[in-house]
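Entry 14. Ran structure prediction on the chain below.
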Amino acid sequence: MRLFCESCQQSQPPQARRGDHCVLCGLIARREQRCYWCLNHTPEGKFCRKCGAATIADHLFGAARMLKDAGVDRFTIARQLGEMDPEQVDTFSSIYAQHAAVMYCHVDQVAAAQPYLVLRHWARELEEELLAQLPWPDKRLEELRLPAIPFDGLDHLRWIREHAAFHQTRLLATLALAVATGDPKLVKTAYREIYTSGDDRLRQEAALALTHWRTYHGTDNLWDHLDIRYRDVWEDVKRAPTSKAQRARLMMVGLEPIAPEVLEDRDPDLAFMAAIGTKMPERLANAAASSDGTKRFVAAKLLLEWGAGDRASQALLQASPDHQYKLLRELARERKPAHGLKRALFEILETTTHDELRRLAGEALARDCQPRDAAEIYRLTGGNRTVVQNLLQQGNLPPETLRDLCQAQVDAGAFSADQWGMKEIAIDGRMPPDFVPKAFVNAAAPMRLQLLRFAEQQMVACNPRGLRTFVVGVAFGGFGPEPMQDAWAVLQRSHPQTGPQIEKAVNFTTAFAQEHFGSFENMLRAVTRLLNMPDEVLSHYAMRDHAANLLRYAEDGISQHIAAHPKEALLLEKALIRVAENDRLCRSLRGDAVLFLGTMAENEKSRERIHAVLSRLDKTDLHASTNLALERLDRLTATP
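Output, structure tokens:
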């Protein structure tokens, strides 16, 4: 029979004897017997102090229980045991032992979970409950027999959780595994199925399990999205029986002052919880170097929360990729700078094969980036967009660093004007004004569109000198037909004035020519190049309207300026004729080309030649436009 301590009433190891010290409270224990009739423990003596049945030798307990099951009364059992054939007594004892062995297998399952729990009465209570049922009917005995279990440790607990015959045993195994592993799924189960089960005793044990450091801090702030009402949980912890385990939990969250005896306790879990409550980084230094991966993770997480990144650096490097990801994700969520973590983060970037971990490490470095590190961060993260966003939003990066960073994106085909941070750079004027012109030269077509859109942001924000002139050159075909339409759209959208923009954004005037082309002669060449673009370019509705409006709203007296450059004027004339005669182009554009030819005919040297062209075109579908042009020429001719 088991020995129970007279002071704390806790069961002692099987080998304990009367006079030994209690393994829990340290006081002198005593020897007790379990009464075969009422199953209560009673001090050694002749009779049970609870029911009055005569006491018997320990080895006869099983046989006595078998006689009780057979209907023998309490006053006869002791006498009959003495009168029975010893072999019959042994047979009864052997039968009972089979039942007891099965029972203790189930009790031992609960005992396997108890080291991870705070309340240690569960195995004893199950023993008391099952002992009263023995011996079982044969069918029940077979139902409760357990197979040989080839597991130990946590694997044994996992088996118990899945296969235990008693529901409460499975729940206790779940709590033990939650405390031992900090598995978020088990913590979720502990709250939703055990804490809220309605069983007050299980609720109290679940509250203590949910507030262990491993489940409370080791699950990556799981409470944010599990709907755990921690106010109720902590109230239950306060009402739990007072113990070091209960006090350590309350100290951890500041609900009880730090007690030195708990802070220095030999139980590492209790000391760790108290150390967390101090909020002193030096108290977690040893935990950050622990061989327990979860403890290192929690220590590193708390050190980062407290702004002690230098102390968390080594723990971060030693953490598993999953823990590294959780730590860096928390940094990203809080938008905290990575003070003291630079070396560790660069090492992670250089060694990890985990893309998301690389991104988070790059983001953390970018939030606290020095100009000399920007290029290396970009290279190691493979130009990740989120990392680039963080780099661009650093106000300390000088213009040349920003240029190099964006040029690297252009070269990689990843540059985007919509990238977070680009608009702020444009508004602040931090990007060099020649970035777009220089990057545009060798950029691929998709990147040219993005560069033009960024140029638009710059022009709207501060209109840097020379940038609009560059976009005008692109609009007139300086880089071929592909980016022309986008350049015209940028010029329109970025023009500062209101009203119809096309005639104001780009004007066929001497002033516009001088400002953006350097001379009127250069603008004539540009207009000629525009009109000589392939049919598919001029057929596009946008380009057709741009070219038509350019001719339609030319400056008054433009013919005189054109005539001053005969070589360029002749080339422009040929381009206009090509447009007018091309029936694959829009009639509106062709008509504007005819009218502009009529304007150029104001120059006497070209009048006769152009008149002949207009007369020929008068017989086509352009009759209305040629008629207006010819009438104007006739008036000029008739004027003395």
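Residues 359 and 461 are 31 Å apart (CA to CA). Will compare against last week's run tomorrow.
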